[in-house]
Design goal:
single chain; 421 residues; Rossmann fold; 5-stranded parallel β-sheet; 13 helices; 15 strands; globular
Length: 421
């Protein structure tokens, strides 16, 4: 690797699923990277070259050790030419935006900001956050956003576990307070992205990210609602979706499932719905989609209960094995995972739970650890909730006495013991 000329030092605040991969990309581009997180355990792991993110193998992290310095101190960002903020933006218990991690980062950064630096926010949020919430915090430094330092928003578009679209190959949307801010941010991201999409304002960039995920949320809700209707009508929803997908125009295939999980889809729609209320605007599609998707784990738990009932068993006392507890295939992230919600419902009804997931070693809240497939396959019912790529489906079909498939991986198979969503 050779040192980059036009972005010598880049700071990244937040070393989670967004920040750590981005920090590694900048380091691989030859930048000196200051990687900051308030969690000392993450800083220690990065310093040791030990990755805790599936998309960043430890070997890859260790290889850029000479270009990356991990820290918990904001003072270490003083020399950075550009600073990217990638902190969590969760919802609070009332399903409203919780910007405290961003406020904390902005306040701390305002204490050390120097003239000429570029600050880019990547954390998903509602339109107006960069201009109205982050800029005033940074201006506590005595500098002026868009004048003595540059400020922009560029939404992360990471899909954990995906290899066909990466940070480099996914177009990067950039919106700045001023044209100069956009130019600075564009130059920064050209180091790690093949295509930059400049937009006129931070608000456009902020809303772009929300629209992308709301589009998915609404369409997933539509097909989930169709799945529940098909269940009542005795029609195979997977066959319906597959047949509709043969239309070469006007239809985009979405697949039903046990619900949405992760750090984006279950959260982002509520950011826009909350902001819309400020303008006396009701986002009916967005809120309805959220309600439908939130109901899916309950529907799935009931589907398991009905399958057991049809096999002359009650949920209480039955051995229920969950295959896959992370929110999506190929990753170990259990944030907002529908599997966890299904398991809580079954536990409340007295089920004897176990699970198999090579990506999730333990579920402390349930007092459970992952078991080999051999040890769960003889349960009273086996529920395929997350179909990891290495799932031995043939073994499941051959040896499980009752299967409930929420991912359609058994679709087209004639096994009599299979119940599908």
């Amino acid at each position: 690797m050779q040192k980059a000329d036009n972005a010598a030092t880049v700071g990244v605040i937040g070393l989670g699923y967004v920040g750590l991969p981005l920090a590694v990309e900048f380091a691989e581009a030859g930048c000196d990277v200051v990687a900051l997180d308030v969690d000392p355990s993450k800083v220690a792991a990065v310093s040791a070259g030990e990755s805790y993110i599936e998309d960043v193998p430890s070997e890859r992290l260790a290889a850029v050790g000479g270009y990356m310095r991990a820290t918990t101190r904001y003072a270490d960002l003083v020399a950075a030419d550009a600073i990217v903020i990638a902190v969590p933006t969760p919802l609070n218990e009332n399903r409203e935006p919780d910007l405290q991690p961003l406020v904390s980062a902005g306040t701390a950064l305002g204490g050390i900001l120097r003239e000429g630096q570029l600050v880019v926010l990547e954390s998903t949020t509602y339109p107006g956050t960069t201009r109205d919430r982050l800029a005033p915090l940074l201006e506590e430094s005595g500098l002026r956003a868009g004048e003595t330092f540059n400020l922009a928003f560029s939404p992360e578009r990471i899909d954990p576990g995906r290899t066909d679209f990466t940070i480099r190959t996914t177009p990067k949307v950039v919106g700045g307070l001023t044209p100069t801010c956009v130019e600075r941010a564009t130059a920064l991201y050209r180091l790690v992205c093949d295509e930059i999409v400049p937009v006129s304002t931070p608000e456009v960039a902020e809303l772009t990210k929300l629209l992308e995920n709301i589009f998915r949320s609404v369409n997933i809700a539509l097909v989930n609602e169709m799945a529940m209707l098909c269940d009542r009508m005795g029609i195979d929803v997977w066959e319906v979706v597959a047949a509709a997908a043969t239309k070469p125009y006007g239809f985009m295939s979405f697949k039903p499932g046990p619900g949405m999980g992760g750090h984006c889809l279950p959260v982002d729609p509520f950011y826009l719905a909350w902001k819309a209320r400020e303008y006396d605007s009701k986002t009916a599609f967005i809120e309805l989609a959220g309600e439908v998707n939130a109901a899916m784990p309950y529907h799935c738990a009931e589907k398991i209960a009905r399958a057991l009932n049809d096999d002359c068993k009650s949920v209480r006392g039955s051995r229920v094995a969950i295959l896959g507890v992370s929110y999506k295939a190929g990753v170990g992230d259990v944030r907002e995972s529908p599997a966890i919600k299904i398991m809580r419902q079954l536990a409340d009804r007295g089920a004897d739970l176990s699970y198999h997931d090579p990506y999730v070693p333990a579920l402390p809240d349930f007092g459970l650890s992952t078991l080999p497939l051999d040890e769960v396959i003889d349960a009273d019912v086996v529920a395929i909730v997350t179909a990891h790529p290495d799932l031995d489906l043939e073994r499941v079909l051959a040896d499980a006495r009752l299967i409930v498939d929420f991912r359609g991986v058994t679709s087209g198979r004639g096994a009599e013991q299979v119940v599908r969503l």
